[in-house]
Structure formats: structure tokens, C-alpha cells
């Protein structure tokens, strides 16, 4: 499910992302009701469920964390758009916008990663498209083509590059706060993906990729490539 563009929400106190405002209270209510039911059945079962509920509650709150960031902006660098692990570095033929070979760098986000998405460069959004699709596992190479996604192209004066928010098996909500024509800053938040997935970067072949396959990167901090 894609959440249509809206004004970029301001972070809450305690560094909890605004997308967690409804999810966290509802999750805690459900866990509390389940735990009460477990205690009603048997105290021992109740305490077991209480321990499990504490772990689940922590994971939900941890998922929506939004740590502060002070990006070091550099027009010659392309920064990671999300936190996670680099799982793909390969040349692909883009058929949506560029219609030519591009260098794809894919970053997989596990449920334990920070899920705030940040602009890899400063520039102007030249193209935006939401594409409904499937929910294949994010590690599946076909997910870049078949899964639900947003496709964004930004121009920074040097070149145009693309990036995709791709839904996965668990990720059922793509939140995007930008639209075509917007001016964006490198490292500034542009979206959020609920419960793990991936982001694909589509870079001109002349860019030099400095990230390595398997490398763990942080959004708005780690350098993926240079112009």
C-alpha cells in the first residue's frame, strides 16, 4: 500500500518517527489484551506471554526509531538512501525512464534497521511514479521489476539518477513525502518503508561505485558512489 505524498512530518520527541504514532499505541493495546487473556487462562502461560509481549513491544518501538542525523553534504558524492546491507551491484537496462544501461546498487533493509529513507543527492525531482505490484522477498532479483514500488529520478546539475522504494514480503506500506518538481537536499528525509524491504539506486555508468557488496551502510552518511 502506497501512502500518497504529504508534507514531510516533523520528528516526534524521543526520536520516534511520526509513522509510529498510531502503530505503536495500537500494537501495545493488542499485546496488552492478548497478555490479559493469557493470564486469564493460566498464570504460568500469562508470564510466558508477558515476556514475549515485552520483546515484541521493544521491536515495534525500535523499528520506528529516528536517530538524529547531520549529513555532510557533498555534490560530488552519492550517499546511501537507507540503512542496510548492499546486496546488488550490477549493470542493468532501465526501461522506465533512462532507456539505457545504468549501474544498479541495491540496499536491503532488515526489520532491525532504521527505515527512514533519505535523498542521496541535492537536486530537483524530475520524475515520480508509483507502480503497484507483487510482494516478493526483497532478496529476489525480480523484486526490482515486479514488486510494488515508487520510482524517483533526481537531477543535481551533474547528472540524473534514479532510486526506488521497493516493497517486500513484510513491507506493505511505502510512505513517500516528495513529488515531481520538488527541490530536495542530500540527506533530507524523503520517505519511510514499513517493516523491511530495499531501495535500488540507478546510477550513470560513469559514476564510480565505492561501496562494496555485503557492506553495511547508513542513510545520509555512507558514500555509495562518486561522480
Task: Walk me through the structure.
The protein has about 230 residues and is an alpha+beta fold. It folds into two domains: about 20-65; about 75-225, Glucose Permease (Domain IIA), CATH 2.70.70. Helix content is about 20%, strand content about 35%. It has three helices and 15 strands. It has an eight-stranded antiparallel sheet, with no helix packed on it. Helix 1 (about 20-40) runs antiparallel to helix 2 (about 45-65). The longest helix is centred in the first third of the chain and has 22 residues, at about 20-40.
Largest sheet geometry:
8 strands, antiparallel
β-strand percent reads 25-35%
The helix tally amounts to 3
The CATH topology assignment of the largest domain is Glucose Permease (Domain IIA)
Spatial order of the strands forming the largest sheet: 10-6-7-8-12-4-3-14
What are the defining features of this structure?
2 domains, eight-stranded antiparallel beta sheet, 15 strands, four-stranded mixed beta sheet, 227 residues, alpha+beta, Glucose Permease (Domain IIA), elongated, 21% helix
In short:
The protein has 227 residues and is α+β, with helices and mostly antiparallel strands. The chain has helices at 20-41, 43-63, 143-146, and strands at 2-3, 77-79, 84-93, 101-109, 116-118, 123-131, 149-155, 160-166, 173-176, 183-184, 189-194, 197-203, 208-209, 216-217, 223-226.
Amino acid at each position: 500500500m502506497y501512502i500518497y505524498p504529504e508534507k514531510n512530518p516533523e520528528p516526534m520527541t524521543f526520536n520516534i518517527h511520526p509513522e509510529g504514532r498510531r502503530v505503536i499505541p495500537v500494537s501495545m493495546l493488542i499485546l496488552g489484551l492478548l497478555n490479559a487473556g493469557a493470564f486469564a487462562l493460566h498464570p504460568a502461560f500469562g508470564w510466558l506471554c508477558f515476556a514475549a509481549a515485552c520483546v515484541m513491544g521493544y521491536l515495534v518501538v525500535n523499528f520506528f526509531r529516528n536517530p538524529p542525523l547531520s549529513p555532510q553534504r557533498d555534490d560530488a558524492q552519492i550517499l546511501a538512501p537507507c540503512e542496510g546491507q548492499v546486496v546488488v551491484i550490477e549493470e542493468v537496462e532501465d526501461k522506465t525512464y533512462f532507456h539505457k544501461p545504468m549501474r544498479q546498487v541495491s540496499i536491503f533493509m532488515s526489520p532491525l534497521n532504521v527505515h527512514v529513507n533519505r535523498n542521496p543527492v541535492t537536486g530537483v525531482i524530475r520524475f515520480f511514479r508509483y507502480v503497484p505490484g507483487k510482494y516478493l522477498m526483497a532478496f529476489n532479483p525480480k523484486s526490482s521489476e515486479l514488486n510494488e514500488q515508487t520510482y524517483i529520478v533526481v537531477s543535481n546539475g551533474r547528472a540524473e539518477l534514479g532510486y526506488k522504494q521497493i516493497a517486500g514480503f513484510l513491507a506493505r506500506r511505502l510512505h513517500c513525502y516528495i513529488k515531481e518538481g520538488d527541490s530536495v537536499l542530500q540527506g533530507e528525509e524523503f520517505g519511510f518503508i514499513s517493516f523491511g524491504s530495499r531501495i535500488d539506486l540507478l546510477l550513470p555508468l560513469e559514476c564510480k561505485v565505492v561501496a562494496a557488496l555485503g557492506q553495511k551502510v547508513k542513510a545520509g552518511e555512507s558514500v555509495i558512489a562518486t561522480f
